[in-house]
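TASK: fixed-backbone design
INPUT:
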């Protein structure tokens, strides 16, 4: 078959290579989605691709401008070793607190200084399952449009409202809405199941290595802990800790309807 793009010197291929770096993604205000499953989920969430590149080996229904690329060439520009047959460029998502809805009893997940993109993606996935109002990242944090965040979120990035903020902005926003801040800290005297997680609540999870910062601890209205067998483990993966606390909140709030 004939391909629209066959040369690694093609401008669109060079652009995709550049978009592997955050500074270029941010400069252009775009991010990359790979594979038909995530592409479909992005479309279902109402996102519109700027450009879609396919390898032509599998028939894929696409939206908007679409070009065929030699399979080996598309694999070369993929974040993975293989492209899964489709690579698409989308406009970046809005990441401001102004995008959040204002329900009467919001449940928020706040992550501080999360280092690994895969953890942020997993936390987005958990947040989607728990039905949170939104996820907020503060401090030195990973790029929410990092390819590993996109992939590990399995599409939750497209549906869970996400804000990149700082503690000053978040505190002003949360206090204006009467949202209580609950920090997760291993040293906290109150176990998570004895902590009130009803009403408007923001659960704050720190990095695995550093835990909560002094700023986050000071801001918190209460601290809570996940009891652990100390002789066997000294910490939980940050995404696991977030899941435990969020679903305890769900249990207390009974906010998920079984299908």
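OUTPUT:
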């Amino acid at each position: 078959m004939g391909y629209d793009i066959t040369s690694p010197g093609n401008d669109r291929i060079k652009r995709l290579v550049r978009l592997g770096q955050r500074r270029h993604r941010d400069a252009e205000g775009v991010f990359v989605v790979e594979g038909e499953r995530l592409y479909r989920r992005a479309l279902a969430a109402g996102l519109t691709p700027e450009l879609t590149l396919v390898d032509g080996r599998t028939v894929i229904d696409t939206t908007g401008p679409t070009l065929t690329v030699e399979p080996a060439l598309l694999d070369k520009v993929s974040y993975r070793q293989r492209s899964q047959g489709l690579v698409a460029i989308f406009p970046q998502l809005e990441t401001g607190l102004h995008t959040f809805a204002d329900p009467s009893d919001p449940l928020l997940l706040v992550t501080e200084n999360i280092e690994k993109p895969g953890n942020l993606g997993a936390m987005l996935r958990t947040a989607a399952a728990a039905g949170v109002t939104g996820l907020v990242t503060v401090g030195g944090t990973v790029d929410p449009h990092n390819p590993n965040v996109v992939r590990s979120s399995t599409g939750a990035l497209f549906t869970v409202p996400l804000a990149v903020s700082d503690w000053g902005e978040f505190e002003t926003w949360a206090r204006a809405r009467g949202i209580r801040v609950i920090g997760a800290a291993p040293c906290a005297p109150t176990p998570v199941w004895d902590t009130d997680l009803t009403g408007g609540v923001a659960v704050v999870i720190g990095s695995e290595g550093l835990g909560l910062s002094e700023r986050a601890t000071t801001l918190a209205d209460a601290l809570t802990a996940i009891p652990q067998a100390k002789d066997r483990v000294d910490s939980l993966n940050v995404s696991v800790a977030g899941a435990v606390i969020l679903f305890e909140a769900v249990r207390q709030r009974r906010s998920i309807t079984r299908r």
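COMMENT: The first strand starts at residue 30 and ends at 34.
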